[in-house]
Request: fold
Amino acid sequence: MLRDSLVGVCPVLYVPSVSPAASRPRPPQEVTAWQPPVAGVVEVFHAHFTEHAYPMHVHDAWTLLIVDDGAVRYDLDRFERGTPGDTVSLLPPHVPHNGSPATAQGFRKRVLYLDSTHLDDSLIGAAVDGPDLADPQLRTRVGQLHTALSHPGDAFEAESRLALIGERLRTHLRPRLLLPRSEPDHRVAQDLRELLDARLHEGITLDEAARLVHAHPTHLVRAFSGAYGIAPHQYLMSRRIDHARRLLLDGRPAGEVATAVGFYDQSHLTRHFKKVVGTTPGRYATAGRYATPGRYATAGRYATRPRAVRP
Reply:
């Protein structure tokens, strides 16, 4: 909960030293922190603590916390709280709180520090009254957001996931102000699809897309997903994979293909390519080179039937 000084964009690992004079060695404590290039996220903070107890302190950002192992007990605004089960804890800015392990094994946590982009100060009171949210879907989404934030090149996915998380948090904090769910906005969805197609290689941020399409970022994600049955970041990634497949079969090296179709680097291409296609770019290209002529047409010319390869 206590945020250390912000570090650079690359994750760093701190392992506090253990005094040889101690009567028994203290278990290592792991801390990883970084600033992702995603609007609204001030810092990502992962930690494993066994004995550390936070003193009373405050943050200038919202603290969105999930605990993967163990449990945390804390005081917020003089009320004792905790993180039982699979809850998501949302601690508001400017409100004092502390924290300590609630089990002998300590706790392992993942934290996002968020600015007021998705949660404004008018929600602080509601968060103080109910900071621990028992919402399995929200917890799953927060975990998925952490995964996206840990991979360079997945910023658009992280922005899309964060938009939906912000909406769900606002639902918990101000449920009476929600509007009835409407039908998908097909005009907005089509405009966004055309924009993603036009920016396939260079990419785009969710905020920029929202400005160009004249829609709120959260509405943009919901409209697209409702109209096409796929999230905007998944659509963009699958289009890039399709282009990569054609370039690989043309004999282009994987590293060159990754840059050409808009991936961060070759490892970024490989991770998403294997998820979609079921094999790596290298194996896919090799299968094409050892193929025999067949009846399958690709890109306006007859392609080859690939020999079987194992993923």
Q: What stands out?
A: Residues 155-173 form the longest helix (19 residues).
